[in-house]
Amino acid sequence: MSVTKFQAEEQSGGQETRAAICGLCPGGCAVETVVEKGKLVDVRPRSGIPFAAICLRGRHSAEVVPSPDRLKTPLIRVGERGEGRFREATWEEALDLVATKVKEIGKAYGPEAVASHSGRGAFEQSLLDFNVGELVATSLLLPFGSPNISSVASLCYVSFGVLAPITTYGLLANQLAPDFENSNLILVWGANPATDSPPFMFDRILKAKQKGTRIVAIDHMRSDIAQRADQWIQIRPGTDGALALGLLHVVISEKLYDEAFVETWTHGFAALEAYVQTFTPEKVASITGIPAQAVIDLARELATAKHATLRTYTGLEYSNSGVQTIRAVFILWALTGNLDVPGGLYINPVPPPTIEKTPVERPTGATAIGSKEYPLFHQLTGLAQFMEFPKAVLQGDPYPVKALLNFGASILTSYPQSAIFEEALKALELLVVVDRFLTKDALFADVVLPSTTYFEIDSYQRYPGYVRLREKVVEPVGESRNDILILRGLAERLGYGELFPKDEQEVLAKAFARKPELLEALKASPDGVALQSPPKQYRKFETGQLRPDGQPGFNTPSGKLEIASSLLAEHGYPALPEYVEPSESPLANPELFQDYPLVLNTGARIQTTFRSQHLNIPGLLKHQPLPEALIHPEDALKRSIVEGAKVFVTTPRGKVEFYAKVTDRIPPGVVEINVGGGSPLQAPAWQKANANFLTDINNRDPISGFPVFKALLCQVALAEGKQAINQFPKGDMHVRSKVAS
Ligand code: SF4
After folding, report:
1. CA 703 to chain centre
2. The domain spanning residue 32 has which CATH number?
3. How many Å lie between the centroid of ligand 1 and the Cα of residue 30?
4. Residues 385, 273 share a domain
């Protein structure tokens, strides 16, 4: 397909307007695009069709796609690593160089010395389908013999999406669908659907509210959804696990749970009953800051709503017991009779795949980095845990890693203690970055390969019960290429090109190979096709629909919903959803609290960025020009901080400059800072504001290996005209001392 092949809906004044899928992020919102002389000039909302939505970033697509900052040709480094001096190269030269170096390094150190990492910029639907699915990692290096494929799944989504639901329900979270439309109570916990990409759930929640459904939001700050909720329950950051156990305490002690369900379908209830005894509402109040009566009321409401549904996402992942906290919430949902019932948390059946792809064998040599430290993470994802990457590069532990292929990810703004990751990137023999703009990572790259936005490719988009073709809106900028064709170019040179599609026609042909009639229907339906699905069936655990053997129950080792997880116990973790106080908190670390008396949260999304992206786009920067530290008026007053003042946020790891947002949306004693800053193309204030100079590479959830981003300690002080600098230790002593020895 090409832009010329499709009938424009409207042509006027040389402008062509037509229905399209937004191509700025993988969200897949249905929009309307306006193209003039081959250039994208506007992206507008579209209504009346499924999955229509547009966010602020999407509205600014016409600035992003043709931005003068776009990478237009392959680049080869000519300066020192980090200088960002490159020369232009042809695709042939650049891909040949990468393949030659990969082979040389593989020969010298073993294939495991070459690793890959993929990020949110590599989530396009065909990339997911032709690689390692939802977990985003490219499978490119598996046939080469390296087990070290990894992705941002090392610090995002997997606790919520894989580890917690598999160890509890025996399924993935992408099967769990909140039934907002039939619910009497919607609890939003660990999520702010207003900043979701796409924002489909937010719209559904607001519609449910208009119809009278009660909304309760649990959040440390008054987020967009908390502002619109009927009740906002304000919680001390990092203590959500204690609240979940407190709710279970009330539900169990007041016998509000579904006794028949517990008897027949659960494993470990008695142990949980004993464990939650100490989580009385009063004790939970002292941990979380939530009044005891509010804990009791919420527990009773959840158990009697008939029914309540849950919107949770990645917000609960970033504490010292992130996986167990999410498990506790899932258990609460099941025990209160809200799992797989109308108006509850519905379990979606898995649709049969339509794609035909050649299976890739897993290498049998060295095991992936991080598989020893985080065995369950590795077992359930098949990925390396990238949090262990600096140790492998800088210390050769468990073996040396010498090369990294980085696809659509900004490692140096998203991983904790960026200075350590920077040292690791500097120490590599080969770093390849595939992206649309020059990231901080790219400054250290030997080869930079320019990829297209999704406005510039033909592909497809899957939605729940729906699918649609993605039609190219404009031709690729410069020589930029579809990511999947870049993979093909590399795979060809490594000797197994046939594993990836050779062009976009083949992408579509293979993606719908098992349902060619669907592809034909899609070609005839620019707005997409609704997939036929059987009528909804509830309580599928009773009818054998959750297990591959067709037996009733759950797809877990015990066949039951595992309150006490066999998989966790097998790997030496607590089987019950135990709560752990954040290790850097006022209660756990009172001495540190003397010097750092504010709880630090990072990671809440803002409307103008997509993670670290778009901070170079003038139209978006106008909405929020500066990186903000949200601070309560009482805490600001104590420090003589006024709205907009330049402040330093300090932790034991570093000191970073932000601008004060004095607001009672944040509680006293807590600070929230924006993430995403720290890349070279960004507005100057954002370039300096890398939140991950403040976070801690060694402070992690022991099951997932995820960093604790939402429960740290900090101090905030007025910068007072002192020179604004980012001071941070040149690497963590724990790592550095080992490197030196
Ligand atoms: S969420 Fe993503 S796909 Fe949807 S409008 Fe925004 S940028 Fe575009």
Report:
1. 17
2. 2.20.25.90
3. 9
4. no
Lowest mean pLDDT, pick from 12-16, 33-37, 158-162, 334-338? 12-16
Read off the DSSP letter of residue 331.
Answer: H
Q: Ligand 1 centre and the CA of 156: distance in Å? A: 19
The ligand 1 atom nearest the CA atom of 54:
5
| CA of 23 relative to ligand 1 center, distance in Å | 7
Q: 């932790």: which residue's tokens?
A: 651
Q: Which residues pair with 661 in a beta bridge?
A: 630
Pocket test for ligand 1, best of 21, 25, 32 (most atoms within 8 A of CB): 25
Q: What distance in Å separates the CA atoms of residue 111 and residue 104, rounded to the nearest whole number?
A: 10
Q: How far is the CA of 21 from the centre of ligand 1 (A)?
A: 9
Residue of 86, 72, 70, 113 whose CA lies nearest to 446: 86
* Cα distance between residue 145 and residue 111, in whole Å: 5
For residues 24 and 80, membership in a common domain is answered with no
Tell me the CA–centroid distance for residue 176 and ligand 1, in Å.
22
What is the per-residue pLDDT across 500-530, written as a single tens digit (0 to 9) for each?
999 999 999 999 999 999 999 999 999 999 9
Same domain for 404 and 499, yes or no, is yes
Minimum mean pLDDT among 8-22, 256-270, 373-387, 727-741: which range?
A: 727-741
Do residues 256 and 189 share a domain?
yes
Mutate to test the pocket of ligand 1, among 57, 455, 605, 614 (most ligand atoms within 8 A of CB): 57
Q: Are 189 and 322 found together in one domain?
A: yes
Q: Mutate which of 197, 436, 473 to test ligand 1's pocket (most atoms within 8 Å of Cβ)?
A: 197
Which pLDDT score is estimated for 352?
81
Sheet with 185-189: list strands edge to edge. Answer: 231-234, 214-219, 185-189, 308-312
Q: Which residues line ligand 1 (CB under 6 A)?
A: 22, 24-25, 27-29, 53-55, 57-58, 197-198
d(CA 626, CA 542): 54
31 and 139 in a single domain? The answer is no
149 in the same domain as 186: no
Give the pLDDT of residue 357. Answer: 81
Identify the CA nearest to 55 among candidates 18, 20, 30, 19.
30
Domain at 688, CATH number: 2.40.40.20
Considering the domain boundaries, does residue 736 fall inside one?
yes
Taking the chain, what is the end-to-end CA distance rounded to the nearest angstrom? 58
Residue 395 lies in a domain: yes
**Could you tell me the distance, in angstroms and rounded to a whole number, from the CA of residue 53 to the centre of ligand 1?**
8
Rounded to the nearest angstrom, the distance between the alpha carbon of 481 and the centre of ligand 1 is: 21
pLDDT tens digits along 626-674: 999 999 999 999 999 999 999 999 999 999 999 999 999 999 999 999 9
CA atoms of 613 and 628, how far apart (whole Å): 16
Atom of ligand 1 nearest to the CA of 29: 4
CATH number at residue 115: 3.40.50.740
Domain contains 69: no
Q: Supply the range of the domain harboring residue 23.
A: 10-64
Nearest CA to ligand 1 atom 4: 29
- How many domains is the chain partitioned into structurally? 4
User: What atom in ligand 1 is closest to the CA of residue 198?
Assistant: 1
